[in-house]
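Structure first, sequence second, as always.
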């Protein structure tokens, strides 16, 4: 019986790295090998399966249509191989070993300072590596196997994932002192669309807030230029407009030392749901659910 030669994980890693970077030098650097080693590994893979995966020119690296399909298959294979190690880890102590978690920017600075001390104290064997990314980027990293779980706000289309809801985070309207009537809550009808400042595209908080207001003209006329909630507060404090803030940011003191007032938004669905999500059928589901319990208790 003739021997069967299969692609190695290293060859697949080289191929995915080249696809991600679009450049042999950068792919080699990311893979911690020389460029000649990476290039030779990909050529060996092409020889092995008998097809060209990458068109090489002096200026550009272009994947063939079949190459694109094989890259996606390679990502799944690498992700499954990575989870083999997880199978051994979950048999040991809960919440131990390395875990990569992505957190969206409208959660990270407000929730992490409260939860990390408890995790270090109660689960000292857990090595938690954190990435701050927008929701879309975080979900992409999750499905590509570069992160293990994501702390984000729902609703958001993150693909085929499992989710553990943690708590609801109410939305507030923040405005310069004296600009709006001192009512206990603010209705969407009270918001001047020409004064509304929102986070730029890519931040799901913007979509949650606009959906809660249910005023199409707000989306059309709002100024979307903020890169962070702290930046938004500074603009409001300088009288440039009003904005939307989640309760967790207010509870964390984002309005301290400003002349900004915040009142709850009086509307249906005037909150976002904070959740921990992970890939379906992950062998570390038990760890993720335990982590979700800790996060929910430490809000």
């Amino acid at each position: 019986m003739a021997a069967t030669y299969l692609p190695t994980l290293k060859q697949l890693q080289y191929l995915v790295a080249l696809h991600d970077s679009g450049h042999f030098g950068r792919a080699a650097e990311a893979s911690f090998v020389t460029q000649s080693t990476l290039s030779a590994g990909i050529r060996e893979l092409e020889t092995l399966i008998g097809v060209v995966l990458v068109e090489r020119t002096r200026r550009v690296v272009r994947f063939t249509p079949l190459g694109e399909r094989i890259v996606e298959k390679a990502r799944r294979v690498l992700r499954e191989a990575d989870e083999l190690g997880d199978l051994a880890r979950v048999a040991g102590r809960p919440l131990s070993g390395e875990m990569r978690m992505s957190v969206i920017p409208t959660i990270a600075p407000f929730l992490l300072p409260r939860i990390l001390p408890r995790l270090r104290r109660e689960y000292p064997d857990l090595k938690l590596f954190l990435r701050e990314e927008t929701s879309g980027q975080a979900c992409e990293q999750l499905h590509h196997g570069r992160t293990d779980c994501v702390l984000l706000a729902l609703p958001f289309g993150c693909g085929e994932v499992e989710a553990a809801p943690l708590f609801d985070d109410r939305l507030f309207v923040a405005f310069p002192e004296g600009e709006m009537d001192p009512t206990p809550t603010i209705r969407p009808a009270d918001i001047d669309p020409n004064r509304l400042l929102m986070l730029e595209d890519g931040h799901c908080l913007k979509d949650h807030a606009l959906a809660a207001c249910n005023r199409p003209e707000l989306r059309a006329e709002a100024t979307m230029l903020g890169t962070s909630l702290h930046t938004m507060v500074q603009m409001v404090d300088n009288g440039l407009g009003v904005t939307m803030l989640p309760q967790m940011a207010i509870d964390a003191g984002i309005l301290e030392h400003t002349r900004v007032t915040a009142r709850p938004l009086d509307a249906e669905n005037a909150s976002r749901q904070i959740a921990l999500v992970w890939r379906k059928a992950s062998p570390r589901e038990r760890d993720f659910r335990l982590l979700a319990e800790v996060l929910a208790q430490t809000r």
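Margin note: The chain has eleven helices and eleven strands.
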